[in-house]
Amino acid sequence: MDGREIILAITGASGGPYALRLLDCLDKAGAHIHLIVSPNGRRLLADECDVRTIEDVCLLGRACERIRIHDYEDIGGLLASGSHRTDGMVICPCSSNTLGTIASGRADNLIGRAACVTLKEGRRLVIVHREMPVNGIDLENMLRMQRAGAIICPASPGFYLRPASIDDLIDFVVGRVLDLLQVPHTLNVGRQSGQETASP
Ligand SMILES: Cc1cc2nc3c(=O)[nH]c(=O)nc-3n(C[C@H](O)[C@H](O)[C@H](O)COP(=O)(O)O)c2cc1C
After folding, report:
1. Does residue 21's CB lie within 6 angstroms of at least one atom of ligand 1?
2. Tens-digit pLDDT profile for the chain (200 aa)?
């Protein structure tokens, strides 16, 4: 998938391991990755994954030249313009705060602006929301986003592939996200249960 450009936004919801695995898989697939991390996303990455600086993310054997880090505050950056073509955006994990911000049409940081641009240009926007339980405001925001063209993909691993480890649970969610982004991957291969030949 040479040349495919994917925006990955990381926000302050629990689920840093999903984001790092997704980054890894996008990189392995040869995608060009535009990375935006909110300040609370940075905090969560530090708390959950010991990633102290965003630059650390790129030091783990990943192809740094294909990962471009963008300033969360820079609403005039490359991704703020629809004339820069990308092949989609994923927010993983997505907090209720960011979900609500985008659902209300606000674009006062680069994650909100890039999401707004992705929708207005008719490109794929995948929102990996993480919260439980969800309140009525979250549900309304999800419906609003879905009606605007986004795909709501809650971080909600299934158990029918008989996960044996936390990594298996992470790969279940990340595999579904990659499917939605139409990025080839081999996650969960060999873990299909007898009854399941495709993810529901
Ligand atoms: C340890 C920790 C875990 C959190 N987990 C979640 C979560 O799973 N989902 C969520 O919506 N917010 C969660 N929050 C709250 C968000 O971080 C908070 O609403 C923040 O304003 C989100 O900012 P952002 O959307 O700009 O990243 C968590 C906060 C902390 C400190």
Report:
1. no
2. 567 999 999 999 999 999 999 999 998 999 999 999 999 999 999 999 998 887 776 655 555 678 899 999 999 989 999 999 999 999 999 999 999 999 999 999 999 999 999 999 999 999 999 999 999 999 999 999 999 999 999 999 999 999 999 999 999 999 999 999 999 999 988 776 544 445 55
What residue owns the CA closest to ligand 1's atom 19?
97
How far, in Å, CA of 9 to CA of 112, rounded?
10
* Model pTM score: 0.93
Backbone angles phi, psi at 12, to 5 degrees: -85, 45
CATH of domain 5-181: 3.40.50.1950
Q: How far is the CA of 67 from the centre of ligand 1 (A)?
A: 24
Dist. CA 61 → ligand 1 center (Å) = 28
Please give the distance, rounded to the nearest whole angstrom, from the Cα atom of residue 172 to the centre of ligand 1. 22
